[in-house]
Amino acid sequence: MSACCSNKSVTCDTQKRLRIAIQKSGRLTDDTEKLFKNCGIKINESRDHLLAHAENLPIDILRVRDDDIPGLVMDHVVDWGIVGQNVLEETTMQREVDGLPVAYKEVMKLNYGDCRLSVAVPNEMEYKSLKDLEGFKIATTYPFLLKRKLKEMGVSFKSVLLTGSVEVAPRAGLADAICDLVCTGATLHANGLKEVDVIYESKAVLIGRDQELFPEKQAIADLIIPRLKGVMAARESKYIMMNAPRNKLPEIKAILPGAENPSIIELEGSPDRVALHVVSREKLFWETMESLKALGATSILVVPIEKMLD
């Protein structure tokens, strides 16, 4: 009897708690944990724990390898997963070949984890286009993405699958070129390689299983999604304040990038000037601030926004 009740309790619990898979360690980990923190999801367990529980919400966090995340979502082991688009695309193509389920929903794109999958060749090689790779051995961790791109270009090549230290392959005589993730290019430079073509550009993405969630889980999702959107909007936005001549307001508003309608506040004792407050959803460059100053704006402040709800 007790075992039966226990099993029912576990089943009931899995129907009520939203389970999210994230990268245990890697380039997305810190930003993902920061995103959760800014969304008010409190998780104190060490990264060494495979399964962590939020303290304040019915959410479980599963810490795994990034290339396991798409499969966990597609196999309905977890409800959501945060993964790089590059890993998602590569895993989807691999699972199609293996005859495994590949269905998922894209919940939203996230504004971090930017990288690119690029071809790199030795510095001394003359390179004009991807067609120069005809007949090459190319080392990569992403054979399906590479094959798709080179097939589009009509280029035949041999793929050399490596799961780490791809950049040393040409120097070790394992390959003629590589196709690997690039963020800064410093690792390529250190290994005598130059980036010559981008195969795929990637960001982090939140994906979900291709089923309706249980009502209790959907309620959690409906709570979290606006928070996620608010945090991402805040990261891309700035709060701008300045004092400005009243007769220059049309020109000032015209050069503020991505700005909403500003709040205009009367300045005591200065009928010809106003305080202008506005949220801008685009970067504000020094040139724009200097243009604002040239129009008579003073005390120009650009402040980061931590959280924002539309």
Automatic annotation (TrEMBL):
Feedback inhibited by histidine. It catalyses: 1-(5-phospho-beta-D-ribosyl)-ATP + diphosphate = 5-phospho-alpha-D-ribose 1-diphosphate + ATP. Residues 65-224 form the ATP phosphoribosyltransferase catalytic domain. PROSITE patterns: ATP_P_PHORIBOSYLTR. Its cofactor is Mg(2+). Pathway: Amino-acid biosynthesis; L-histidine biosynthesis; L-histidine from 5-phospho-alpha-D-ribose 1-diphosphate: step 1/9. Residues 234-307 form the Histidine biosynthesis HisG C-terminal domain. Gene3D superfamilies: 3.30.70.120, Periplasmic binding protein-like II. One of its GO terms (molecular function) is magnesium ion binding. This is ATP phosphoribosyltransferase. It comes from Anaerobiospirillum thomasii. It is found in: Cytoplasm. Its EC number is 2.4.2.17. Catalyzes the condensation of ATP and 5-phosphoribose 1-diphosphate to form N'-(5'-phosphoribosyl)-ATP (PR-ATP). Has a crucial role in the pathway because the rate of histidine biosynthesis seems to be controlled primarily by regulation of HisG enzymatic activity. GO terms for cellular component: cytoplasm. NCBIfam families: hisG, HisG_C-term. The keyword Glycoprotein does not apply. It is an enzyme of class 2 (transferase). InterPro entries: ATP-PRT_HisG_long (IPR020621), ATP_PRibTrfase_cat (IPR013820), ATP_PRibTrfase_CS (IPR018198), ATP_PRibTrfase_HisG (IPR001348), HisG_C (IPR013115), N-reg_PII-like_a/b (IPR011322), N-reg_PII/ATP_PRibTrfase_C (IPR015867). Keywords: Amino-acid biosynthesis, ATP-binding, Cytoplasm, Glycosyltransferase, Histidine biosynthesis, Magnesium, Metal-binding, Nucleotide-binding, Transferase. One of its GO terms (biological process) is L-histidine biosynthetic process. Belongs to the ATP phosphoribosyltransferase family. Long subfamily. Signal peptide: none annotated.
